[in-house]
């Protein structure tokens, strides 16, 4: 069944030319974009949806989230708002809560979070393990992530569990735990930070994961300056996420990674920065240095309990100095780039003939309204693989 979606006021394609088409129409067929053109000369289709001048952009690609967890950390958030600082230690609170519930309840919670994200225009989602931290709990988290989201990531190296020696835990992560999660994940990640895993430990985890065939991602430079960004570049990671503390050397490494080839995407997490009162990641400086920047929610119960990509995009425009086009690109096409899904048969994050038909119609005439009317629920319609789901 083909569908003509027409009378689009502004179609922000996020294609290579950043094309923005007025009075546009799109045909979706068999889950893919089949045609793009003017609403005055559309081809025939089985069904027709008229959008009365609303804007359409690619569905959000949320390339960093932690949805496999139980419990919440309201008290910790309140303490932070009262002046406490964030430490990675809170991960243990969520890990304890997560270990206590059964597989089906853990799956149900993840499914509800995915549904919440989709209802706000997210059409492609990555999520991580990392609140299990035993072989069994990481394996079931990976299996649930595999079932519930588009891309799943092994983050056994999130925190050293209480009572374990950190090097022995790294041995476990690189050995039995990696073997157990391997059937369920495409990526491995590591929290490379003082208080979590050192650069050497992180390198061991990432090298073992790469040898096992996984793509690499890194949590880097969130809580202070350190070697996370440079390690990510050194190992050819697809993405280094957080990037709150970026030195001149880090910037040079990141921009150098883009010299004539696919480099390491810098994924910024604006909602996390606000919730932890961290310095906002220098997204403008990264872009100006030629680094590809993605925006993601980092939805998790500790540092960023939101599934709203629109909130992150608005923050990037209002507080990080990005244009609307740059912020939307970072939240769509560059999220796909961070996941290696920007081109080819599985391409998402841009509205291009042949790509997956993941569309987000706003109840507004332009994407500018995302920042102009922050906090207003602007999602009018969502199509995933060509099927209208909202
Ligand atoms: O990306 N930084 C590490 N992991 C999460 C936070 C985890 C937590 O505090 O529960 C993050 O912010």
Automatic annotation (TrEMBL):
One of its GO terms (molecular function) is imidazolonepropionase activity. This is Imidazolonepropionase. It is found in: Cytoplasm. Zn(2+) binds at residues 64, 66, 219, 298. It is an enzyme of class 3 (hydrolase). The keyword Zinc applies. It comes from Subtercola frigoramans. Its cofactor is Zn(2+); Fe(3+). Belongs to the metallo-dependent hydrolases superfamily. HutI family. Fe(3+) binds at residues 64, 66, 219, 298. Binds 1 zinc or iron ion per subunit. It catalyses: 4-imidazolone-5-propanoate + H2O = N-formimidoyl-L-glutamate. Its main location: cytoplasm. Its EC number is 3.5.2.7.
């Amino acid at each position: 069944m083909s569908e003509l979606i027409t009378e689009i006021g502004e179609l922000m394609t996020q294609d290579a030319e950043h094309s923005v088409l007025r009075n546009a129409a799109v045909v979706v067929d068999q889950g893919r974009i089949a045609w793009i053109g003017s609403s005055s000369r559309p081809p025939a289709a089985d069904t027709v949806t008229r959008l009365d001048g609303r804007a359409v952009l690619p569905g959000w690609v949320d390339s960093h989230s932690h949805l496999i967890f139980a419990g919440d950390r309201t008290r910790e958030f309140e303490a932070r708002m009262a002046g406490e600082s964030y430490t990675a230690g809170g991960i243990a609170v969520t890990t304890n809560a997560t270990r206590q519930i059964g597989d089906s309840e853990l799956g149900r919670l993840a499914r509800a979070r995915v549904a919440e994200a989709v209802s706000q225009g997210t059409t492609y989602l990555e999520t991580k393990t990392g609140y299990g931290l035993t072989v069994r709990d990481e394996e079931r988290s990976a299996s649930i992530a595999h079932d519930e989201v588009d891309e799943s990531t092994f983050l056994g190296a999130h925190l050293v569990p209480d009572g374990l020696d950190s090097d022995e835990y790294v041995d476990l992560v690189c050995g039995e735990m990696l073997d157990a999660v391997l059937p369920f994940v495409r990526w491995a990640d590591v929290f490379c930070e003082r208080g979590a895993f050192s650069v050497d430990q992180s390198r061991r985890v990432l090298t073992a994961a790469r040898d096992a065939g996984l793509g690499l991602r890194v949590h880097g430079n969130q809580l202070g300056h350190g070697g996370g960004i440079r390690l990510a570049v050194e190992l050819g990671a697809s993405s280094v996420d957080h990037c709150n503390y970026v030195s001149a050397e880090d910037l040079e490494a990141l921009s150098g990674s883009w010299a004539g080839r696919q480099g390491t995407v810098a994924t910024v997490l604006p909602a996390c920065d606000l919730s932890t009162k961290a310095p906002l990641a220098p997204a403008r400086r990264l872009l100006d240095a030629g680094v590809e920047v993605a925006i993601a929610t980092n939805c998790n119960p500790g540092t960023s309990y939101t599934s709203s990509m629109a909130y992150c995009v608005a923050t990037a425009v209002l507080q990080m100095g990005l244009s609307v086009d740059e912020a939307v690109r970072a939240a769509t096409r560059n999220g796909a780039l961070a996941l290696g899904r920007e081109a080819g048969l599985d391409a998402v994050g841009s509205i291009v003939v042949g790509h997956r038909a993941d569309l987000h119609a706003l109840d507004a005439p332009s994407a500018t309204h995302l920042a102009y009317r922050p906090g207003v629920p602007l999602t009018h319609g969502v199509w995933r693989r060509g099927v209208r789901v909202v």
